[in-house]
Amino acid sequence: MKWHLSPGRNRDGDGRNIDESLGVLAGEGAHQDVRETAGKGARPVPEPKERAESTADRDSYYGLPMLKEPVWKWPIPTYFYVGGLAGASAALGMAAGRFGGPELRPLCERTRIIAAGGAVASSALLIWDLGRPSRFLNMMRVFRPTSPMNVGTWLLGAFGGFSTIAALLRQKRTGLLGPIGDAAAFAAGVAGIPLAGYTGVLLSNTSVPLWQGARTTLPPLFMASAVTSAASALDLCTLPPAAQRAVRRYGIAGKIAEIAIARMLEREAGVVPRVIAPLHEGVSGSLWKAAKICVVASLAAGVLRQRRLAGWLGTVGSLALRFAMVKAGTASTLDPRASFEQQRARLGAAEVTGPAPELEQGTAVPAPERVLVPAGA
Amino acid sequence: MSKKGFFTDTTLCIGCKACEVACKQWNQLPDDGFKFTGLSYDNSEHLGSSTWRHVAFVERPMALGMQVSGAGNFSWLMMSDVCKHCARAGCLESCPTGALVRTEYDSVYVQPDVCNGCGYCVSACPFGVIDRREDDGRAWKCTLCYDRLKADMTPACAKHCPTASIQFGDLVELRVRAQQRVEELHRRGTTEAYLYGADQPGTEGLNAFFLLVDKPEAYNLPPDPVVPTRKVRRSWVSLAGAAVAMAALAVAAVTGV
Ligand code: SF4
């Protein structure tokens, strides 16, 4: 067993078993960096929701997941919250700067700081979650409209630039710099609105049954929740009464929209019960319920003019909503039958291509009696 | 350059896993840890970042057409699974860096020197093929042996398949051959044989397609897969509507009307 003793990269055994004194590492997979041996570097198959001992039922392959679990960890749902918060703050700041009087100037300044801070935090969270963080700029080597993640990166880049300028110039009212700051704040608001919701499109543009099944309502839900987040964060700041009133109106409308759209989402994705199941059970189900309760409570507190309470409840609710959505999507990915049932219910390709002839005529689905010929028959 | 692909005829597969081994060896991929799953003879379980061919073992406690083995009261459906090199690929269309490209052979290729490991392709693939290797940080999958094609060689798995269950070639010709095979099987009584993916509407075809004798689900394949991009227009429209509403809301909030 010469390769055990060979020098170089494989001395400790990286699972390739190539003696580099005899062979060259030049294959298509040769550059895979192996730091964890014994197969631990590659992601294992997660324990299936319903493992099947045999394949006799024909409805799944031992219950193993058909799709791969999303790789995203906590920074991504956190980013969904922070990015939404920043975008919706910038939108309110834009409106206050353009249509509000001088009494709303403190609100403008506050939103500019939140927007710029949120943009910086968003970038940090996104880079943190990359497999190769040092290559984050590769996101901007192409423009690919079919990739909401690519579109979002450009959007976040523009938003970050505008909101930073606006924040730096927030106290300049006159001279040359004042109008520049105001224009930057306006541009940040324009970019901030789609920034608050594109993450919903990003999730919808996947094979994850729940996210794909909720693709109409997910972007508006995230936007409404972003309004809640922004209003809640501003409720936790010290503001003059005029600004408080604007924030209160913004928050109440956002929360009502959020509650209504959450219901619509449950209806949209609930056509196939298995697809929506993770929003009703397990950790993701509890988070989803907590998010809805917090938003309703925050709405009540806002109506009763309890600013701080409304702020805290709204913040917790918005965060819980993002984590619930990501966790529930992951759970629906790991249930192969969720995809299978969704597609059998004509909600796969059939939705855009018309019913597949195989699905209609059953040629792709041989009737059991045609396939299963008992022995001796 | 003509379009190349695989035709995997599962009725010929004997489950020897020569394709899995040949793929690992040629591409110099690290091992999976040699675990024992107890799921028939399947110990690799799925395609992954370092497993680019995977043989599925479907067991049936009855005699099926041509798949009877051993004592005659038991059948194995074996399928060597691989990246489908979709004509419209979810992984490629979602890739934000342009690391995923389509090659001159019409295959889908990840450039390891560009990929930054965002993981979007992992969730966009409708077949659960591509995966990120956590210690490496990048996404990996079958390359259709791009290096071998460049040297005018057959991909390692097809080269090593001892029963011609995996066939490599020009797609046009493969499709004809596959159709003839289905007809032949039907003539011989295996009427359940059909092609999966030769003409998949949701992905506008798969460059690696299969001949199956059971429901796709039995092999862990989706019955009606779709490239997510084809369905997402509705999300963008709904985003646009919500954007108008949000702008109006912000103005209303500051003006008080
Ligand atoms: S099967 Fe998945 S990884 Fe392969 S080309 Fe299609 S979308 Fe990409």
- Cα-to-Cα separation, first versus last residue of chain B: 64 Å
Our estimate of the beta-strand percent of chain A is under 5%
- Remind me, CATH topology of the largest domain in chain B? Alpha-Beta Plaits
Shape, principal axes of CA atoms of chain A? globular
**Regions of chain A with pLDDT < 50 over 5+ consecutive residues?**
1-11, 361-377
Structure summary, number of beta strands of chain B: 10
Largest interface: A-B, 130 and 115 residues
Number of H/I helices of chain B: 7
Which architecture of the largest domain in chain B does the CATH hierarchy give at level 2?
2-Layer Sandwich
Q: What is the total tally of β strands of chain A?
A: 0
Per CATH, the superfamily of the domain at 75-337 in chain A is Formate dehydrogenase/DMSO reductase domain
What structural class results from the helix and strand content of chain A? mainly alpha
Oligomer kind: heterodimer
* Weakly predicted, low-confidence segments of chain B: none
CATH A-level architecture of the domain at 75-337 in chain A: Up-down Bundle
Terminus-to-terminus distance of chain A: 53 Å
CATH class of the domain at 75-337 in chain A: Mainly Alpha
Q: Spatial order of the strands in the main sheet of chain B?
A: 8-1-10-9
What's the pLDDT, averaged over the residues of chain A? Answer: 89
The residue fraction in helices of chain B comes out at: 25-40%
| Strand proportion of chain B | 15-25%
